Amino acid sequence: LVRSAEGAHLTLTDGRRVLDLTGGVGVLNHGHNHPRILAARERFARDKRMEVHKTYFSPYLAALGHNLAEILPGDLNMAFLPNSGAEAVEGAVKLAYKFHNGKRNTVLRADCAFHGKLLGSGGLTGQAQFGFPTIPGVDTFRYDDLESVRRAVAAHKGDVYALLIEPFSASTIQECSEEFLRGLREICDREKIVLIFDEIYTGWGKTGSLFHFMRYPGLIPDVLTTSKSFGGGKSSISAYVAREPVFRKAYDNLGDALMNSTSTTYYGFGEECATALEAVNIAVEDDYPARARALGAVLQPGLERLAKQYPDEIGRIAGAGALWGVFIEGGPRILDLVAKLAPGGMARDPRFKTKLVTCAVINALYQDHDIYTYYTLNGNNPLIIGPSLVTEPEEAERVIDALDDVLSRGLTGLVARFIKQKVSSQW
């Protein structure tokens, strides 16, 4: 069990000190228990500030909305602040639908998209496992394939109200090209489609720019969604930030101004906004994009070297800044071994073999090197190295050395140990 957590490290009840390279699966750019984040929350409680009341103006909500408008490009000026990424996505899609006065019926998403797991956002997520009813009119295009987008738009001529895209897909570790994103902007302008960029995971410096799309000057979505590290690892807060003309066309009327169309119980919660204010301050003042680039300057060449050194074990590596995926393959001999050991039900999962081999590597890193990593459930299940942005480059070098040591032993032994320790008793 974890006794305490600080910065990039976990201290376990047995005394072990573990380097956490999960980055809280996107939540912990600031690391565990950042002192300035803790101080902001303590100050709010000590001063007995009011949390929330929809008939009073909140200085925290106003300040946070102002700061978002200041640091985001163009006229991304209008923010709404619910609690989770899925809520932000659904709010953005709802805004797009309202922008067209309910006269359009189709929303487009990428085939590998991950936008949440609620009834609405789950239907916008490209996973076959989501088997619940969802919003109508969802259609799909191939990620980073502009011709596929053109076909999808043409198939619903004049009926598409929103298009969602993750400029960097954190769940599959792939990114859109600049040409693709600018092409989307052109198509959406021409067809009057609301363009939504989902940067819930990649925002606040993770891939080497404040938001991934901001590496391309002049490229501005109609709506941006953010969450996870927006709350500094302590605050359950998200946002969708819209271009002012888009927001006003949808909601600048008395009925909607009274939140008849958009409201949540904890919208603009005082302590959450105060925490997010400090989280944004830290990300900007401590130049988190530069910190991510410094980590990437260690991780990228190190992982590329390992991919060349272990071609049978590593299929490829991909990533940017402080978010990298190592695609463990294992080769036919290992996969055949796994197939023989696995029970029939598990073996029917087409990705089960890869998942098991990847988990064996994760297990060895944790047990033998006190390094904590994870793998994604979407796409091809890469092992993820996504450190908090308070992690030092020397610690990134440590994971390269540890992964080298683990792979040097061969995957057969790693898989056999993992099955014996963690799996066989369950089978």
Structural account:
With 427 residues, the chain is of the alpha/beta class. The chain folds into two domains: 2-32 and 288-423, Aspartate Aminotransferase, domain 1 (Alpha-Beta Complex); 35-285, 3-Layer(aba) Sandwich (Aspartate Aminotransferase, domain 2), CATH 3.40.640.10. Helices cover 42% and strands 17% of the residues. It has 15 helices and 17 strands. It has helices at 35-46, 59-71, 85-99, 119-123, 146-155, 178-191, 244-251, 254-257, 270-285, 288-309, 331-341, 344-347, 352-369, 393-408, 411-423, and strands at 2-6, 9-12, 17-20, 76-80, 106-110, 138-141, 160-165, 168-169, 174-175, 194-198, 223-226, 239-243, 314-320, 323-328, 371-372, 374-375, 383-385. The strands form four sheets. Strands 4-12-11-10-7-5-6 form a seven-stranded mixed β-sheet, with helices on both faces. A four-stranded mixed β-sheet has the order 1-2-3-15. Strands 13-14-17-16 form a four-stranded antiparallel β-sheet. α3 crosses α7 (244-251) and α13 crosses α14. It starts with a strand and ends with a helix. The model has no long low-confidence stretch (mean pLDDT 92).
